Amino acid sequence: MIDQAIANGLYLELLFVAMLLLGILLINNLILYKQKVKGLISLMLISGVVMCVLEIVWTFIDGHPDFTILSYLAAGGYAVSLIIFAAFVNLYLIDRFGIKLKKIPLILIYALPVAITVLLCATTPWTYLMFRVDEGGNVLTMEFFETVFHGIVYLYIFSPLLIAVYFLTIGKKRKPSDGEVPFSVFVFGAIAPFLYWLQLFLLDNGAEVYETSSIPVSLALVYLVTNVSTHSLLKTRAKVEATEADLRVGTEIQTGSLPTDFPDRPEFEIYASMDPAKEVGGDFYDFFMIDDDHLAIVIADVSGKGVPAALFMMSSKIYINDHAMIGGTPAEILGRVNKLVCANNKAHMFVTVWLGILEISTGKLTTASVGHTYHHSQPVWFGARNIQSRNRERHGAQQRNRSAESNRRT
Predict the structure, then answer these.
(1) Does residue 176 contact residue 98 with C-beta atoms inside 8 Å?
(2) 0.70 exceeded by pTM
(3) Backbone angles phi and psi of 407, in degrees to 5
């Protein structure tokens, strides 16, 4: 048992600590963990901060008869914010277990009790169901507030412990994906009652017992949110690092698939390089000898960026290489490839290709291009719609709308 003034001061200091911790936790989750303001954890922490602020106001003006109306407002606001805070705690905890509630249970379990609490607090100056302010300005909590209301609040906060105990015992094989959650919720359920009883022990002033749900629950929630959020962040970072490692390997594989051994031939010189916009991309080039007298040259650009474009690029490159080795003119080769690219192309991706075959002995270069029209920038999908090729003659400019090839003496 301690002095009244010391008890009052210590009680307010604990409330300020709870408010500051929840506020810091809120800022930390918004900035460090990139949580949305409309997310469950943010709404829970916001309502917790409001709850602590209103309880501090209630404590400051308690016992001042000149602030009777403000006492009703502060006590009623505290009760509403408390049940909202407890409801969000419950929603947050069961969400961590992967439990999703439908609309009707959400209304019955959460929205209805909150609406009833708002109604009771709004009418309590006349009904005295929740509080009553006496002539000395002291806020007296009524039996309904101490039993039914607090019973609902504690049910919200501690009912997820049953789920945690289940996952820690008979439901081990059916743990949620994040195995850290059940243990953290269990520890949270142990910390909150311990802090509540410690509060009663320290602030018991004989005639008046200081007790509040916000202090122990807020302090225990700091452990829970920090532990679970940190664990989730570490898992996310591990996944990101694994993905980055996979992308680095993908970059090496894609780079390795491009020819880098440039032939030293007296008939021609050839060189190429590629720098993808992302780790992997859809642009590619290729050159290879079809036979001793024919060199195939490919320049292509797949729609999009990243992994999807890289996968489409690899398949397109293989198709072009294989069908060039089979034989035919560039237009015929791209025509056969187009049928393969169109097959099962549910993503509707396309590739713009320029294919040239150089006859080394004569210097004649035969080319065909697909994917874009000759005059317009509007793409014609190669792999999704059709092919349009163009002819270019060294001594003529005749162009056709159908697929064709051009011969040019070099």
Answers:
(1) yes
(2) no
(3) -115, 135
CB 297 within 8 A of CB 270: yes
One-letter amino acid at 212 equals T
∠ CA 93-94-100, rounded to 5°: 145
CA dist list (Å): 329 to 215, 332, 399: 81, 5, 17
Q: How far apart are CA 317 and CA 45, in angstroms?
A: 54
CB 12 within 8 A of CB 59: yes
C-alpha 103 chain-centroid distance: 23
Q: Which tokens go with 198? A: 């410690």
Kindly state the tokens that stand for 253. 């594989």
49 contacts 19 by C-beta, under 8 angstroms: yes
Do the Cβ atoms of 81 and 54 come closer than 8 Å?
yes
- Give me the residue label for tokens 């959020």: 229
Q: What is the pLDDT of residues 80-93, one digit of tens each?
A: 999 998 899 889 88
pLDDT tens string 215-228: 777 777 777 777 76
Longest dimension (CA), the chain: 112
Phi-psi region of 340 (alpha: psi -120 to 50; beta: other; left: phi over 0): alpha
Q: Which helix (H) or strand (E) holds 226?
A: helix 214-257
